[in-house]
């Protein structure tokens, strides 16, 4: 793939029209967190028939029955076209609101994916399907106050057998996207079998919880630096009792660590597309500003130091776009990106997006620091790309481990 | 019901101020501007789709054939309409400067003879040339009734006629035309209740705008047929009758002046502007 196809561009133009009609006029309220992003996102799904497509996909899964996993994977692998169709709205909406994409991606992507890839058919139908159509909002909870990068090692949340075939869940989770509003939560914890097994080597399991389950508290959104269109909160579980029907896969032997790692990789693909949207927008705004802002009697675009910024932004845009194309091309070829490559890709895209945003703020001068100009918001939002889905440092160590043969 | 909808692409109307006149004044150039479907033509496609579907269940109840005359890349414009839901496309290859309204109407006359639609629905005018002629010339050539500047269309007499609301100075004129007929549409034709086809329940309200193509619509547009012709292969022999002699930009307006009082304003209007 060397460029977007005519069809891709048609999708892009339609999404742009939607963004202009439905998102930019409300950006202010969305970005102040006054309005949760879900209604606009639902309208996006309805308008483009994404909910219908999700229902049709599920009907196909249901018709086929609960095929064994290996077989499922072969069929499930997303085609290049399907991936492009998913990434184009991510790029376009990220130009204005990376927060909305985070809220969307965590719900319809990560949380739905966690259930759709490892759940039983009944779980997929009950909890997965309504997430893929955005009827319900989902949250995926692994991070805890004491465990972030070391997600499994330091995890304290537990599930204990209640002796009647069910479980009692305890723990607290933080930085949980959609946490405040989620209808469906995938809660990741360790199985405490009451024996002397050290915490690090305990089985990891995940449970599906509904909003309003006794013992579950979902806090109000936390205040944060940026990404205000994506509500982030804490979850507290105090002796939450659930049946086995809530255990993802309905068996304690589902490889939940592997599943969580898959979820991390899925998150990484999304970051490249988000970075592309952010960088494209910064570049577009910066070129415009460089042509129109006059100092010392000429447009600032005539100063070489400003030209350098624009050229660097363009190089970043080309590189990130090529990485997005590569992802689509690999999907078309039926190949999955190896972990180290996915890490390298996420690392580069997140860092470049941040650099481009900082350069854009600088190019805008005082206006760049003012909320009235969009680069201020994009700059605050871009920072998160270096933190969630595995920090830059974690990506670096993964690349290095692979290089050194310790992967 | 079968409807033929001629559409055309124009230089991005949102950036019309970037259109330039060539140095020798022989033509208008829109280089660097994106080509988009003429907005009134998009309204025509939307009106035709609403006439041929059940808006509540979204089932298709007729056929919309979209055609465009122009260079090969107008196929993209046609596919945009197919993505919205039109069934088929026809592309008539022809250079932009080998055409005027009469040539286009002659081409459409041939397509009409091939397709035998119940209605031809067009935009009232292009937003670039603004000539507002093709629909009228076509109706004349075909000897068909015409209703221009439509802001509402209601099928009547068991589908044998249309009652069309026409936007005219000072109000709306309702006319009844027997089918087949030629209708040109205005902006308000995409109003939520502007179209009544006897199939879509009267309670159904459309959005006040042309529809978005769905992702599935965009994907399936690739597989819908677009037939190709050339102006010559259709047997059209007309040559353009309009010759453009010279283009020039309107003179730059001189800067205004600020006045201190109404008295001064009246005085200046009288002595300098000489309008009172
Ligand atoms: C807006 C937002 C939304 C989020 N949404 C979710 C969500 O929906 N669900 C969820 O479960 N989590 C979510 N997170 C949490 C996110 O995944 C974690 O913040 C991230 O993994 C980092 O963990 P930490 O914050 O605990 O930082 P720490 O792990 O404490 O890291 C602190 C610093 O130490 C560095 N560091 C840590 N270990 C190493 C090492 N081995 N070598 C070198 N440096 C190291 C880190 O890179 C970082 O710079 C979200 C976070 C944010 C900011």
Quick synopsis:
By secondary structure, chain A is of the alpha+beta class. Chain A has helices at residues 6-23, 27-31, 38-47, 50-64, 69-76, 80-94, 98-118, 121-132, 256-292, 304-332, 339-363, 366-369, 374-382, 392-403, and strands at residues 138-141, 158-161, 167-177, 184-192, 204-210, 216-218, 232-242, 294-295, 298-299.
Explain this structure to me?
The complex is a heterodimer of chains A (407) and B (276). By secondary structure, chain A is α+β, with helices and mostly antiparallel strands. Chain A has three domains: 6-137, Butyryl-Coa Dehydrogenase, subunit A, domain 1; 141-254, Beta Barrel (Butyryl-CoA Dehydrogenase, subunit A, domain 2), CATH 2.40.110; 258-403, Butyryl-CoA Dehydrogenase, subunit A, domain 3. Helices cover 54% and strands 13% of the residues of chain A. Chain A has helices spanning 6-23, 27-31, 38-47, 50-64, 69-76, 80-94, 98-118, 121-132, 256-292, 304-332, 339-363, 366-369, 374-382, 392-403, and strands at 138-141, 158-161, 167-177, 184-192, 204-210, 216-218, 232-242, 294-295, 298-299. In chain A, the strands form two sheets. In chain A, strands 1, 2, 3, 4, 5, 6 and 7 form a seven-stranded mixed beta sheet that branches. Chain A has a two-stranded antiparallel sheet with strand order 8-9. In chain A, β2 and β3 form a beta hairpin. The mean pLDDT of chain A is 93. Chain B is α/β, with parallel strands linked by helices and 276 residues long. Chain B has a single domain, classed as HUPs (Rossmann fold, 3-Layer(aba) Sandwich). Chain B is built from six helices and 16 strands. In chain B, the strands form four sheets. In chain B, strands 1, 8, 9, 10, 11, 12, 13, 14, 15 and 16 form a ten-stranded mixed beta sheet that branches. In chain B, strands 2-5 form a two-stranded antiparallel ribbon. The longest helix of chain B has 15 residues, at 101-115. Chain B is globular and about 65 Å long. Classes of the chains: A alpha+beta (407), B alpha/beta (276). The interface between A and B is medium-sized, with 16 and 15 residues. Flavin-adenine dinucleotide binds next to β1, β3 and α14 of chain A. Flavin-adenine dinucleotide binds at residues 106, 140-143, 148-149, 175-177, 227, 232, 384, 387-388, 390-391, 393-394, 397 of chain A.
């Amino acid at each position: 793939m060397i460029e977007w196809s005519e069809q891709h561009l048609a999708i892009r133009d339609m999404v742009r029209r939607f963004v202009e009609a439905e998102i930019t006029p409300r950006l202010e309220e969305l970005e102040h967190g006054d309005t949760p992003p879900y209604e606009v996102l639902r309208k996006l799904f309805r308008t483009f028939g994404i909910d219908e497509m999700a229902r049709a996909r599920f009907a196909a899964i249901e018709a086929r029955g609960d095929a064994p996993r290996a077989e499922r994977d072969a069929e499930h692998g997303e085609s290049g076209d399907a991936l492009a169709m998913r990434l184009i709205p991510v790029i376009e909406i990220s130009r204005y609101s990376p927060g909305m994409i985070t809220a969307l991606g965590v719900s319809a992507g990560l949380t739905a994916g966690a259930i759709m890839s490892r759940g039983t058919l009944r779980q997929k139908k009950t909890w997965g399907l309504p997430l893929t159509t955005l009827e319900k909002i989902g949250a995926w909870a692994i991070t805890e106050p004491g465990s972030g990068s070391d997600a499994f090692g330091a995890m304290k949340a537990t599930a204990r057998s209640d002796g009647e075939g069910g479980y009692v869940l305890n723990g607290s989770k933080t930085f949980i996207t959609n946490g405040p509003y989620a209808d469906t939560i995938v809660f990741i914890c360790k199985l405490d079998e009451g024996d002397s097994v050290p915490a690090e080597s305990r089985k990891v399991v995940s449970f599906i919880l509904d909003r309003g389950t006794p013992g579950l508290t979902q806090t109000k959104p936390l205040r944060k630096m940026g990404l205000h269109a994506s509500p982030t909160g804490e979850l507290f579980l105090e002796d939450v009792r659930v049946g086995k029907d809530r255990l993802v896969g309905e068996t304690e032997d589902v490889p939940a660590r592997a599943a969580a790692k898959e979820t991390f990789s899925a998150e990484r693909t999304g970051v490249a597309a988000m970075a592309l949207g952010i960088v494209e927008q910064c570049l577009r705004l910066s070129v415009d500003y460089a042509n129109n802002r006059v100092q010392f009697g000429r447009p600032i675009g005539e100063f070489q130091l400003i030209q350098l910024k624009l050229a660097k932004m363009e190089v970043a845009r080309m590189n990130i776009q090529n990485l997005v194309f590569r992802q689509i091309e690999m999907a078309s070829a039926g190949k999955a990106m190896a972990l180290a490559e996915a890490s390298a890709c996420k690392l580069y895209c997140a860092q470049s997006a941040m650099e481009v945003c900082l350069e854009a703020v600088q190019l805008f001068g005082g206006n760049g620091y003012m909320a009235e100009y969009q680069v201020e918001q994009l700059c605050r939002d871009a920072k998160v790309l270096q933190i969630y889905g595995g920090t830059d440092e974690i990506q670096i160590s993964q690349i290095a481990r692979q290089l050194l043969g310790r992967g | 019901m079968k409807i033929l909808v001629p559409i055309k692409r124009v230089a991005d109307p949102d950036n019309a101020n970037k259109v330039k006149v060539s140095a020798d004044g022989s033509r208008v150039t829109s280089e660097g501007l994106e080509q988009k479907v003429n907005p009134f033509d998009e309204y025509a496609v939307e009106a035709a789709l609403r006439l041929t579907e059940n808006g509540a269940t979204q089932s298709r109840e007729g056929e919309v054939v979209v055609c465009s005359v122009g260079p090969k890349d107008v196929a993209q414009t046609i596919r945009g309409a197919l993505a919205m839901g039109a069934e088929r496309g026809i592309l008539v290859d022809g250079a932009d400067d080998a055409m005027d309204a009469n040539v286009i109407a002659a081409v459409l006359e041939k397509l009409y003879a091939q397709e035998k639609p119940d209605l031809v629905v067009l935009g009232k005018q292009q937003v670039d040339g603004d000539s507002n002629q093709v629909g009228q010339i076509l109706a004349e050539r075909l000897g068909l009734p015409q209703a221009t500047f439509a802001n509402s269309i209601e099928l009547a007499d068991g589908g044998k006629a249309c009652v069309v609301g026409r936007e005219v100075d000072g109000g709306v004129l309702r006319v009844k035309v027997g089918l087949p007929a030629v209708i040109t549409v205005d902006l308000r034709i995409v109003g939520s209740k502007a179209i009544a086809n006897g199939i879509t329940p009267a309670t159904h309200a459309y959005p006040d705008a042309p529809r978005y193509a769905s992702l599935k619509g965009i994907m399936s547009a690739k597989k819908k047929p677009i037939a190709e012709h050339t102006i010559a292969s259709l047997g059209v022999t007309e040559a353009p009758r309009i010759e453009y002699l010279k283009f020039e930009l309107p003179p730059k307006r001189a800067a205004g002046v600020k006045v201190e009082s109404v008295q001064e304003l009246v005085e200046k209007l009288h002595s300098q502007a000489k309008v009172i």
